[in-house]
Amino acid sequence: MMLSNEELVLRLVLSAVLGGIIGFERQSRRKSAGLRTNVLVCLGSCLIMIMSHEIYAAVEGKTNADPARLAAQVVSGIGFLGAGAIMKEGLTVTGLTTAACLWVVAGVGLAVGGGYYAGALVTTGLVFITLGALSRLDEWVMHEKNMLITVHTLDRPGQLVHINDCLDDLRLRVRGIKVKAAEDELWDDTASGTPIYIELEVYNRQNVKTMIVVDSLKKLDGVFSVDVS
To answer: d(Cα 100, Cα 105) in Å, to the nearest integer?
Structure first.
């Protein structure tokens, strides 16, 4: 049975609205895939699903066409957008939630295009709650147990590995890392390395005392000072 124009418009508009709801949450957090991206992904997925149904309805009984073929390409094709949203900087990987969000938004679009309104509405609500409420909870928990460690050390081969191993022994997990040159510092012995500052964002799940962290890092060869905040 072919879709009426009213039903066609309803599905396309609903997919844009649902994608916009999720995209608005991402936009408010200044994520790379914001309002427009999520609306377009959801709307495009919906259109492809409608086309799949309509093409099948037009040839039903005449061939063994599979109506799920076009929809299946959306599921695999959305991986390209997701991969583009994932970034790796040092030891930090960002964009995983954004990539997962795009994948779910594509599913919402397919559900609306297939006429599964209840599933699309419930999924949108759950995604919004997950991205909103659970993100705030995660930020609150992580803020309580996060440590910012600044290590003033010599830039030597393997020095960062030694620091990371030391933190691993203390059961501290590195979530982010930045390296800055000590430009305002004069250093003559360049053969042994040049001074740098390494800033590490660390998750202190075991509530290790600050003094223990400082003492452990100061014992490493080449480390001048350690500051924890």
So the answer is: 9
| Cα gap 141→207, rounded to integer Å | 12
In whole angstroms, what is the distance from residue 33 CA to residue 222 CA?
Answer: 42
Number of Cβ within 10 Å of residue 213's Cβ equals 20
Q: What is the pTM of this model?
A: 0.57
pLDDT surpasses 60 at 78: yes
Instruction: Read off φ and ψ for residue 45, nearest 5 degrees.
Output: -65, -40
Strands 223-228 and 87-89: unpaired
> Phi and psi of 100, rounded to 5°?
-65, -35
The helix/strand/coil state of 92 is: strand
**Cβ contact 152:226 at 8 Å:** yes
The rounded distance, in Å, linking the Cα atoms of 16 and 25 is: 14
Query: pLDDT tens for residues 13-71?
Result: 999 998 888 888 777 777 767 788 888 888 889 888 888 888 777 777 676 767 677 77
Q: What is residue 4's DSSP assignment? A: P
Mean pLDDT of 119-133: 83
Residue type, 26: R
Helices marked H in 182-228: 210-218
Tokens of 88: 């790796």
Q: Say which residues have a Cβ less than 8 Å from residue 219's Cβ, sequence separation at least 6.
A: none
Comparing 10-19, 79-88, 210-219, the range with the smallest average pLDDT is: 79-88
Q: Which two tokens stand for residue 219?
A: 């014992």
